[in-house]
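dumping this here before i forget
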Amino acid sequence: MDKGQSVATTRQRRAAVSLLLAMVLLGVFPLDVLLPSFPALATHFHRSPADIALSISLFAVGIASAQVLIGPLSDVIGRKGLLLAGMSVSMLGALGCVMTSDYTLFLIFRVMQALGCGCFVLSQALVQDLFEGEERDRLRILMVTATGIFISVSPLAGTFLQASLGWRGSFWVFTALAATVLIKAWLFLPNSRPAYSGTRLGFIQSYRRVLGDFEFVGYWLISAFAFACHFSFIVISPLIFMDQLQLAPYDFSLILLVYGAAYVVGGILATVLNRRITPAQQVFTGLSLILLSGLAMLYLAANHALAPATVLIPMLICTAGTTIARPAATSRAMGLFPENAGTSASAGSTIIFICGGLISALISLSPANLQSTLGYSFVLLSATALVLNNRLSHRARNLEANTVAQTGGD
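structure:
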């Protein structure tokens, strides 16, 4: 966006914060909150739980496909119209899921809902458009913190909705939240296109430009590795706490609530560090905490019997590291191509989606002890990311030195 539009008014910023948090909350409903309703869905549609799980896979494919197109398109026609259209399509898909009794139609409506939810990728582009400097970094910290909290409380919320409203409950609440996001976006988002004065790049050229930049891909990989540590725990936590430790669903939900509370502490710590140290140092600090959590996990697995505390204590350390490292790495990546913020957000989200999905799948399928596997993965991912961060920092220092030398020579 141009200079006059790059920073929003105070009213727009306040509205944008609540809008972005509503989008984060909305993102957990199609997947995480729906999980406790799987048995009820299987009964309603006379299908096996494996068939119901197919709807999750189709949803993931749909949202990933949509965001690849939505990001670059938003760089050309603007964010607001696409966000309004996406929310409308997702609401129609959710309402279709509620009203149908045919499983094939249910899958079709789930894909429709997913295509609409692809507009969630615009949240990072909106942060880039409407905020700047430390305020932008603080908002990204808030969004990462909120994401962790919402995901952590989603099993409890899903259980409550299933008990009170049945499997349709999550779709009704999703529709209400989507309508809220739509209205807030229509009322408060600026109705302007990104006003980059340079030549418009085509779809392929835009992706080639951002993905061809080592620094851009490097920082998104760091963010993806940090996210994969969190996501892997969420994926395998039912296997550890419910299958191996035989905890009741309610007790499992309480453990995730404690995990979510750790995101609040991590967010506060990240906000303090954001004011005092550089983004590269924030990334280093966060990744070091993830490495420490992996080592602690391995030590506890080797010297103590499996218990909730032996898993949860290292995860609290990991959560703090994730909350510190991810926003800093994301801000560095998104700041490289502000004129292609939509494309940058889509490319980064795809990198996170692929890394998080593949790594969590490998961990969950591991025949070894899950706690040890989780610890080894934290050590490997954080160590790799630390090496990458060191190389990126060294590269940035060399570029800065060359620039100073050339300026002095002129």
